[in-house]
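Cross-check.
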Amino acid sequence: MTLAPVTSTFMLTAPLPDVAATTAEDFFTTTQGRVYARALDARDARFDGVFFVGITTTRIYCRPVCPARVAYHSHRRFFAAAAAAEQAGYRPCLRCRPELAPGRGSCDSVSRIAGAAEHRIAAGALNGHSVTDLARELHVSERHLRRALERELGVSPLKLAQSHRLLFAKRLLADTKLPITQIAYASGFQSLRRFNASFAEQYRMPPSAVRRAPGAKNTPASRAQRPDEMLRLTLAYRAPLAWDVLLDCLAGDAIGGVEVIEGRRYGRTVEIDGHTGVMFAEDASAASAPSDKTHVNVDVSASLVPALMPLLSRLRHLFDLDAQPSAIDEHLSQGGLEALVAAHPGLRVPGAIDGFDIALRTLLRGRARPCRAQMIDASGAQSDDVAVRVTWAIGEPLETGVPGLSRLSPTAWRVVDAGVERLVSLGVMRGRADAAVAVAKLVAGGTLRLEPGGDVTAARAALAAIRGVGDQVAAKLVSRALRWPDALSPGETALQRAAKARSSSALMAMAQRWRPWGSYAALHLRLHDEAQQSSLTARARRGATPDLNSQEDESCRMHAHASMAS
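Predicted model, tokenized:
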């Protein structure tokens, strides 16, 4: 079945109405109801994770891509979140497994507060902490936080957290050989007894039944998990995914000893809440057609099991797996970047495992390195890269047994303890050292939160107040650390050059057509500029004069002029 065109802006910003107050027939007469009905009938993967559907006859809820036979319209009920479906008394489908659906991107939530809260709760923010603590982190009242989540998702913060815990546990039961006790604690439960009771109450089955279910990868007969064995998990995404370009961008910022990129596989050391280990990730479509497998395979050290919930959330941010590429690409193409989008469909803006980590690298280097810069393999005090020298001097050593991974990135507290003079002695320019230590103090003191869902305005203001932190650096940090999708620095020379903009004000005027996806537009422009500069350099080395009237240059010039004219 071919779907009628879907307006991307509507798809991303329209909140799902509370259909509990209306009949299913009433909902299907609305524009959104018709869109969701067509998406469900066609099993359209673009809507995976955007909504869930409950089947009233079986009391089971599914993803839009579920392979089971589609129910009649009168037997369907739509939900904005899995938690809302469970609150209404529906159980997760064992075939399509709602716990594996992609998440919602930064712009998918009408309310910024609801979106930030949802991301943090998914990462375990309410495991051992209260709703009051979360509201304080988001700089809102507890009442406002509750109202935002109930309006957007139809559930309270505690219900949302409980749903995430149970779905996460269900995932580990089906996909790993971990003992049930270990799964209970890794999922945020304070006791095995409480976990068993909650699981049975919500899903009407004991946890052990999940491992006997069809499709479960680990049955009771499977051998036990070895302490030194890596866990294999998957992270779903919406196709397409420009994985190779994403790896190029990560390689440009990478530090030898902390990260390693081998072919199409990315690995790095990790420290979360005192738990350390290594992880590796690779796009599963590397071995098959992209439409066949739309997930990233992730291998994680068993030592990181207690921190699995926040780790998987951070990896989704690092690889930008919650993005809706079809909507983003369509919007940017209509904004005059059609040729650039066609060159890199499914482009993702890389995030960060740790916000301070990416901030420190950028501040020490004084600029953002090119996406296609060769990864610097040299490590230790003799490296030409000042960020590598600092990492090896003050970062904590880590015994991993994995070649190329032997260091942890310095924490904010370690940078504060090292001080400006120590950084200067390692070859850091004094101005950059001052800025790095200043940011480290703000992060260590909790004044600056470089994490997804953070207050973008407050973060940019705090960064702008630090001497040596320019707008280009600030834009990169809010884009990568805070996952803000509309971060673009109009003063960046590479962007002006790629867009053929004569000034920052001209680029800013052009950027209005790219909102709210300025971060993606900036990366497209940066990649195009790097390719153009590389081509010019190659021609210069051959002694050839650049052909400014080439078809490629003329095409880009036409797109830029059309954007400015609009």
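The chain has four domains: 8-100, 112-210, 231-480, 493-565. The longest helix spans residues 518-541. Passed to J.P. for a second look.
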